[in-house]
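Today's session is about reading a structure prediction critically. Students often jump straight to the picture, but the first step is always the sequence itself: look for stretches that repeat, for charged clusters, for runs of hydrophobic residues. Only then move on to the predicted structure, which in these notes is written as discrete structure tokens rather than atom positions. Here is the chain we will use throughout the hour.
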Amino acid sequence: MEKIEAIELAALKLLQQSPSEAKTVIDKEYPFHKIVSQGRNYSDKEKMEQFIRDGFIDRYSGQKLVNPGILKVLSNYMPETFPYHSHWKMEECHNAYWEFVPTVDHIYPVALGGADSMENWATTSMLHNSIKSNWTLEQLGWKLYDAGDYTRYDGLTRLFIKLVRSDEGLLKDTYIKRWYRLSVDFDKG
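Below is the predicted structure for this chain, in token form.
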């Protein structure tokens, strides 16, 4: 029986004043499976490793993403034109943070029993991570794009490093400093 048919049949049983039969239909045809979440636990270093491994490509859209620090540099120089908000409030933060800053997502959601391991991680934008939430790729009709090649596109990491080296005062910003250190540690160029 299809899931939608199970819902329809259960609703019809309720209409017939038969809640116990409705429950039986759901229990048999479309049961709820409670899953204990393993939680999410990765460091900034592991995030950067993932971004490099995926070549700063959004694995859900194929779009290029950027090193998190470079946008904050733009915000530092142009706070009114390119605003930043520490909690990324949409009405107070430039859309680029949502569209181009990479984040780590669990391909198969942890909330559905997916592993919190590198094999289940994918780089994606905050926008796509937010949309995907706890849904599977199949449920959304999405696919997993191939990883990029960091040697061909580095997410503007080298440009970010050059910008900070040209103005070390930027390192007073803890967000920039964190991503600068990670970038320098990982950049091979």
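Discussion point for the tutorial: The mean pLDDT is 92.
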